[in-house]
């Protein structure tokens, strides 16, 4: 037995134990309240947990939240009759949770690094506790799925949703755009159940059923500025590189292109990126494994697992979390239509926002920071997506912090990103934004690599200067 397998054995043992505990609580006729994060992985986790309790005939309700503060606030509404179930969230706030729930039972199914002290009333399944990296080997949806499967083998039918969750969390970024570790185990469950097909190809959404220009335009992971979100520009791009998009009257699909045509397309994309001043490394992210949900209809946005994740993300980002959870649970018809409209709308808005953000007049460079001011043009609900997308293109280089801002009602929403290089030099964006926001009378915080803040409108300039100053201090101090 290899080392990896023995690590999995320990973790899978934890999964079994949690399933037994949940079985016991269900048999005691207890009620559950599921709290899930509102991103794609969170909504996938919430859907799988909901199905798990639904199938066993247990009483439950599901709430999706933006962060732990919402949960701690919500928890006060529930008496001890309800057992909280945290999915894709919770492990990072053990002390806070223990403080609120005391010694009543809690279930945490998460993949974020545990922080604080657990207690014996907390049933926690987390890969980190067994030496497995939760950043890229398994998602919140994956952990929830394994527990649901241990409880009831029929839940294997939800394995594709766990794959969607992992891709939503970009867990395919480490290993040439493919899932590995425990995620691969889940992919195999899906394949064995006849629910999924995996092939190596260009990653544009809908490789085997969408007209090529539509496949290009609908892809947002990776986001290709000037092509993603814009079908007519995707079409003229294909014309420019000399790819035949039609065979007679019929639109061709990506899977039909021969090697030469694929090379043409790839090289064309490299040139396109270079013309925008973007690094060619971005283009490497468009080749990898395609995860196709073969039981979904090809004309839906659910057939390609990455697109499914984009759909859930759009639901969460627009405040329609419940639509996403319902679709991930298997609801279709009007709900799917609604979710698809949300995604279409979101894609167009995001494409416009990124185009605006990349213009020179939106940008301002300071000593340690690049500031993108979306003003009233970029929807403040999109500002964290814009910051992520822009920083993932690499256009900002590695040496400066990216600060993206947009106006909200009465305040300014800020989202910041740092490079891995800056983190290694001792930078902590969460601390920087917390301190700069405090100085201007706002509030902020987050992780070392990604953080956010909300500040008063009139303090914008001062805030930016403070971020730049504190960044400089932190980098100076670390030398
Ligand atoms: Mn997650």
Please outline the helices and strands.
Blueprint: H1 3-27, E1 31-37, H2 40-55, E2 59-65, H3 68-75, E3 82-87, H4 94-101, E4 106-109, E5 122-125, H5 140-151, H6 159-168, H7 182-192, E6 196-202, H8 212-218, H9 231-241, E7 246-247, E8 250-251, H10 259-275, H11 281-284, E9 287-293, H12 305-317, H13 321-329, H14 333-358, E10 363-365, E11 369-373, H15 383-393, E12 401-407, E13 411-417, H16 420-424, H17 429-439, E14 443-446, E15 450-456, H18 460-477
Parallel strand pairs: 1-2, 1-3, 3-4, 4-5, 11-12
Antiparallel strand pairs: 6-9, 7-8, 10-11, 12-13, 13-15, 14-15
Manganese (II) ion binds at residues 41, 88, 111, 139-140, 169.
In words, what does this structure look like?
There is one protein chain. This protein is α/β, with parallel strands linked by helices and 479 residues long. The protein is built from 18 helices and 15 strands. It has helices at 3-27, 40-55, 68-75, 94-101, 140-151, 159-168, 182-192, 212-218, 231-241, 259-275, 281-284, 305-317, 321-329, 333-358, 383-393, 420-424, 429-439, 460-477; strands at residues 31-37, 59-65, 82-87, 106-109, 122-125, 196-202, 246-247, 250-251, 287-293, 363-365, 369-373, 401-407, 411-417, 443-446, 450-456. The strands form four sheets. Strands 10-11-12-13-15-14 form a six-stranded mixed beta sheet. It has a five-stranded parallel beta sheet with strand order 2-1-3-4-5, with helices on both faces. Strands 6-9 form a two-stranded antiparallel ribbon. Helix 1 crosses helix 5, helix 2 (40-55) packs antiparallel against helix 6 (159-168) and helix 6 packs across helix 12 (305-317). The longest helix has 26 residues, at 333-358. It is globular, with a radius of gyration of 23 Å. Bound molecules: manganese (II) ion (MN).
């Amino acid at each position: 037995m290899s080392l990896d397998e023995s690590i999995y054995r320990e973790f899978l043992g934890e999964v079994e134990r949690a399933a037994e505990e949940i079985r016991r609580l269900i048999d005691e006729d207890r009620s559950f309240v599921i709290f899930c994060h509102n991103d794609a992985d969170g909504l996938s986790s919430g859907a799988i947990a909901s199905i798990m309790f639904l199938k066993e005939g247990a009483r439950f309700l599901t709430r999706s939240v933006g962060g732990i503060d919402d949960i701690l606030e919500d928890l006060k509404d529930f008496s001890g009759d309800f057992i909280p179930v945290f999915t894709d969230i919770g492990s990072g706030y053990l002390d806070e949770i223990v403080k609120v729930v005391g010694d009543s039972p809690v279930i945490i199914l998460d993949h974020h690094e545990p922080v604080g002290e657990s207690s014996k009333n907390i049933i926690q399944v987390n890969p980190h506790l067994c030496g497995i990296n939760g950043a890229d080997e398994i998602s919140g949806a994956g952990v929830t799925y394994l527990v649901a499967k241990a409880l009831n083998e029929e839940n294997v039918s939800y394995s594709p949703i766990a794959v969607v969750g992992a891709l939503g969390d970009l867990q395919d970024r480490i290993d040439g755009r493919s899932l590995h570790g425990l995620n691969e185990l889940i992919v195999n469950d899906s394949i064995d159940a006849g629910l999924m097909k995996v092939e190596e190809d260009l990653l544009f959404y809908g490789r085997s059923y969408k007209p090529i220009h539509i496949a290009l335009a609908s892809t947002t992971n990776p986001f290709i500025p000037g092509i993603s979100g814009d079908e007519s520009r995707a079409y003229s791009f294909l014309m420019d590189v000399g790819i035949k998009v039609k065979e007679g009257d019929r639109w061709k699909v990506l899977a039909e292109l021969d090697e030469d045509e694929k090379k043409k397309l790839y090289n064309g994309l490299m040139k396109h990126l270079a013309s925008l001043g973007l690094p060619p490394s971005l283009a490497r992210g468009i080749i990898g494994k395609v995860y196709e949900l073969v039981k979904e209809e090809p004309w839906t946005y659910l057939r390609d697992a990455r697109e499914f994740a984009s759909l859930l993300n759009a639901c969460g980002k627009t405040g329609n979390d419940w639509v996403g959870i319902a679709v991930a649970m298997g609801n279709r018809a009007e709900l799917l239509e609604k979710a698809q409209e949300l995604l279409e709308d979101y894609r167009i808005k995001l494409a416009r926002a990124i185009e605006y953000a990349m213009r020179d007049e939106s940008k301002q460079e300071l000593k340690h920071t690049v500031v993108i001011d979306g003003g009233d043009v970029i929807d403040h609900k999109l500002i964290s997506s814009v910051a992520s997308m822009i920083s993932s293109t690499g256009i900002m280089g590695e040496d400066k912090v990216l600060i993206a801002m947009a106006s909200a009602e009465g305040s300014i929403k800020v989202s910041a990103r740092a490079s891995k290089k800056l983190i290694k030099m001792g930078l902590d964006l969460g601390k920087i934004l917390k301190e700069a926001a405090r100085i201007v009378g706002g509030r902020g915080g987050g992780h070392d690599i990604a953080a956010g803040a909300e500040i008063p409108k009139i303090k914008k300039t001062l805030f930016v200067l403070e971020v730049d100053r504190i960044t400089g201090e932190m980098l100076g101090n670390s030398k």
